[in-house]
Amino acid sequence: MIEASKEWVETYGDSSLLETVYKALDEVVKLSDCEIYSYNPDSDADPFLEKGAIWSFIFFFYNRKQKRVVSFHFCCLSNLVVDGFPMDSLCYEEDGEIFDDMDM
C-alpha cells in the first residue's frame, strides 16, 4: 500500500490514495450507512486469490437502504509474477520451500 500511495501522489499529486478511495466508496454506498464485512479465507480455499499473491484482503460494504454491495479487494503480488517469471515452471514440494534461502 505504501508503494501504491507513493505512485498515486506522483501521478495525481493533490489528494492521497486513501482519501480518493474513501470518497469513491462514499459516493457509491454512503459509508456511514454501511455494514462492513471482511473476508479472510484460508489461502488454499480462497477463490479470489491471484496466482503469485503474497497476501490479500477483501472487504464488503453493504448498504441496506440503497440495496448495494461493494467488494473491495487488495492483493500484493510477488515481483516474480509481476516481472513475468514463469511460476508454472517452479516445482516446490511445499509452498515454504521457495522461502528457505531467505532471511526472515
Description:
This protein has 104 residues and is α+β, with helices and mostly antiparallel strands. It has 3 helices and 3 strands; from the N terminus they run H-H-E-E-E-H. It has helices spanning 2-12, 17-29, 79-82; strands at 35-39, 53-63, 68-77. It is flat. The relative contact order is 0.13.
Rg over alpha carbons: 18 Å
Quaternary state of this entry equals: single chain
**Approximate shape:** flat
Written as H for each helix and E for each strand, in order along the chain, the element string is: HHEEEH
Layout of SSEs?
Blueprint (H helix, E strand, L loop, with lengths): L1 H11 L4 H13 L5 E5 L13 E11 L4 E10 L1 H4 L22
Antiparallel strand pairs: 1-2, 2-3
Pfam family, one: Maf1
GO molecular function: RNA polymerase III core binding
InterPro entries: Maf1, Maf1_sf
